[in-house]
Design a protein that fits this description.
alpha+beta; Cytochrome-c3 Hydrogenase, chain B; 8 strands; 14% strand
């Protein structure tokens, strides 16, 4: 007689070290194979969109930073550009260059955090020790520039909050030189590691024909060989004045997504160097009215930014009052961390659950916004 395997319910997270942030995955398994998966979020903060409807326009900038803690700057960028579009306020060219520098530093820092998490989910714990330490060099730059290591409130309507400190460009270049050289160590430790190759190639495959239909964006989409990047497709700030390429990789598996991120770090380093070389002088902010009496004209705007996790959009509506009428966030984490992840985990081995999830770049607060 064939023994019938019993279905068991397992919960990964929110404390499990292989889980991205404060979320939980409810698994129905038989043996070590996942039969069904359900994402649960809400273990952190929530309700950002509704909070902003009760705040002055300027008070919304500290709120949007919390929508994705490891990468707050694209949120500031989206809110600022949406306000500028509704208001018709121009941004000085120097401020646009500085914004790009901040966004690309944020992308590198986010990828370093991802590398550590992806390696840690496979038991390669030296990698997160290295990447978290190296990421701190970027956080040091953010602290000097903005006063904050994680939340910056630096990009705001009309430009940026303050100009670069004396000697800051040189310190950025030194950090970039160090990180670029450091990538060879990461290659030997992680990207060329036999364990990583064994657990990433052919695992967590996204169907290329379904990727666009499912709403996949960012490295998971480019890891399917599809060249989609808002910085190229719909350039903003000064990205149209900079030389870089859209990184793609065929296969749609964990390995492909990892190689896209690995090569994009080099692209971001190149972009920042170009920014420092081409950055003009001039003002960094186009002043607006008193923030306590700041009313936007009635109108609406939808803006998109290419974050480290993919296309990130804000829909902002003003009714002409002191507060937003509506702010809606369209981020990649909802698709990647809920609908896509729940599909991909069916039939997966329990040991691969965290590995697959980390490869998608999920940011749970963005889901429970």
């Amino acid at each position: 007689m064939t023994q019938v395997e019993k279905e068991t319910t397992l919960y990964l997270g929110p404390q499990h070290p292989g889980i991205t942030g404060n979320m939980m995955i409810e698994l129905k398994v038989t043996g070590d194979t996942v039969q069904r998966a359900k994402t649960h979020v809400g273990y952190l903060h929530r309700g950002f969109e509704k909070l902003m409807e009760e705040r002055l326009w300027m008070q919304c900038f500290p709120i949007v930073c919390r929508i994705c803690v490891p990468e707050p700057d694209p949120n500031e960028e989206n809110l600022a550009r949406a306000i500028e579009e509704i208001e018709g306020r121009e941004v000085p060219e120097r401020a646009q260059y500085i914004r790009v520098m901040v966004l690309e530093l944020s992308r590198i820092a986010s990828y370093f955090l991802w590398m550590g998490g992806q390696a840690g989910s496979m038991g390669l714990y030296t990698m997160p020790q290295w990447t978290v330490g190296d990421r701190d060099y970027i956080l040091d730059l953010f602290e000097e520039l903005t006063g904050g290591r994680v939340y910056h409130m630096y990009i705001w309507a009309g430009g940026v909050r303050r100009d670069l400190p004396d000697g800051f460009a040189g310190r950025v270049r030194r950090v970039l030189d160090y990180l670029e050289e450091r990538l060879t160590d990461y290659d030997r430790l992680f990207f060329q590691n036999a364990l990583f190759l064994k657990r990433s190639q052919g695992v967590g495959v996204i169907d290329k024909d379904k990727a666009m239909e499912w709403g996949v964006v960012g490295p998971p989409l480019r890891g399917c060989g599809i060249a989609h990047d808002v910085r190229k497709d719909e350039p903003y700030e000064v990205y149209d004045k900079l030389d870089f390429e859209i990184i793609t990789h065929e296969g749609g598996d964990i390995y492909a997504r990892a190689m896209v991120r690995r090569r994009e770090i080099e692209q971001s380093i190149s972009i920042i160097r170009q920014v420092l070389d081409k950055m003009p002088g001039g003002p960094v902010h186009n002043p607006g009215p008193n923030p306590l009496k700041w009313k936007l004209p009635a109108g609406e705007a939808y803006v998109r930014t290419e974050s480290a996790r993919g296309e990130f959009g804000y829909y902002v509506v003003s009714d002409g009052s002191l507060k937003p009428r509506r702010i809606h966030v369209r981020g990649p984490a909802y698709v990647h961390g809920v609908s896509l992840l729940e599909k991909m985990l069916v039939g997966a081995n329990i040991a691969d659950v965290s590995v697959i999830m980390n490869s998608l770049g999920t940011c749970p607060p963005e889901i429970e916004r």
